[in-house]
Design goal:
Blueprint (H helix, E strand, L loop, with lengths): L11 H4 L4 H10 L20 H30 L6 H8 L1 H16 L12 H34 L5 H30 L1 E4 L10 E4 L10 H41 L9 H20 L1 H11 L2 H8 L7 H31 L1 H6 L3
Helix pairs in contact: 3-5, 3-12, 4-6, 5-6, 6-7, 6-8, 6-9, 8-9, 8-10, 9-12, 10-12
């Protein structure tokens, strides 16, 4: 069993001549959170749709801009020998999950013309694919949580700067510990990954899927589906999004009130510290806004919303359905890359010291 409901936009003309049963089999055989919906294998002689060409150019431009701005931020911090606020160091560290995500996007685009995607050719590549797909949102989310809590402590509790100095010294160890812990959390995704060979009669590529054993034991297709949905719900919605939202509620509101109302608890903080709080709020707010398409895409995929809606309204032959699926998928990728550009840009905007470090 595989977990996907994405239908390639390039294949909407073909869908119209399939029977409902054959279409459902193709839907069940498609890849889930792994690949772009319009990058499935196409028939020989069919030209690539405009969406594929545009997406490749757009992704290349955005990824290049993101890497350049993050590289400039890293160079500025190195020139200052790391003597900047810990908030800026945490934001700079977010380029690591960015790179994991960009590698995923690039591999998908490079595999668009192949009969079998590169991550479906061996169990090890499939395991690495599922591991990386679940690791990078976890790293993003909990680095944001660490940044917000650090800004909260420095604004309200760190009256003498001792916490800031201690956190800067221990930051490499803290980052390694956070990365190792989240890697352990995401490790089951590699263990449960499987490469499934689709029957040759369907002319579809192999699929990298998650096969999660039922918690209560037993066998059966229904139990396996429930276990898979529960697992994906935990790793794609609860752990990377819902749990961080709960952790961020109190410090986020406190920072907003402290910055806007100018309460006495923040009088001890200097202007530079308050600017780091502004940067933190920018990073967090933009993250919450730009991750909405990713959350929607995961929810639709986990609960097979697209397939249920098309079956309910008898819309299997409607070309607008796969097109809309594709656009949501593209939006989730584009907004995630945009967030990688916004973060360093905000650091340069609110820190004159970092801007000056790039000068001659």
């Amino acid at each position: 069993m595989v977990d996907s409901v994405w239908v390639p936009v390039a294949a909407h003309q073909e869908v119209g001549v399939r029977t409902l049963a054959a279409h459902q089999e193709v839907v069940r055989a498609a890849s889930t959170n792994s690949s772009l919906p319009f990058l499935d294998q196409e028939e020989a002689g069919v030209e690539e749709p405009v969406e594929v060409i545009v997406s490749r150019v757009l992704y290349a431009l955005l990824i290049s801009a993101s890497l350049v701005t993050n590289l400039l931020l890293a160079i500025a911090i190195l020139r200052l020998k790391g003597r900047v606020a810990v908030v800026y160091l945490l934001i700079a560290a977010m380029v690591v999950p960015d790179c994991i995500f960009y590698i995923k996007v690039i591999v998908e685009l490079m595999s668009g013309d192949s009969a079998a995607a590169s991550w479906t050719r061996s169990p090890s590549s499939c395991g690495a694919w599922q591991f990386g797909a679940h690791l990078h949102p976890l790293l993003h989310s909990y680095l944001v949580v660490a940044t917000v809590y650090h800004a909260f402590v420095t604004l309200f509790l760190d009256t003498r700067g001792a916490y800031e100095r201690g956190a800067r010294q221990l930051l490499p160890l803290l980052l390694l510990g956070l990365a190792a812990g989240l890697a352990l959390v995401a490790a089951p995704s590699a263990l449960y990954s499987r490469v499934l060979a689709v029957p040759a009669a369907q002319h579809e590529p192999q699929v990298c899927a998650l096969l999660v054993p039922p918690i209560a034991g037993g066998e059966g297709e229904e139990l396996e589906e429930q276990a898979r949905v529960t697992y994906r719900l935990a790793y794609e919605i609860v752990l990377p999004y819902l749990l961080p939202l709960l952790l961020l509620a109190f410090p986020y509101v406190s920072l907003l009130v402290g910055l806007m109302r100018g309460i006495e608890a923040t009088d001890h903080a200097d202007k530079a510290t308050k600017m780091t709080v502004v940067v933190t709020l920018w990073v967090l707010t933009s993250y919450l806004m730009l991750q909405v398409p990713s959350v929607l895409r995961s929810i639709f995929s986990i609960f097979s919303v697209w397939h249920k809606l098309t079956s309910l309204f008898d819309a299997e032959d409607d070309p607008r359905v796969p097109a809309f699926q594709t656009y949501i998928h593209m939006a989730s990728y584009i907004f995630t890359i945009l967030w990688g550009i916004i973060r360093p840009a905000v650091c340069f905007k609110y820190s004159p010291r970092i801007r000056q470090a790039l000068g001659p």
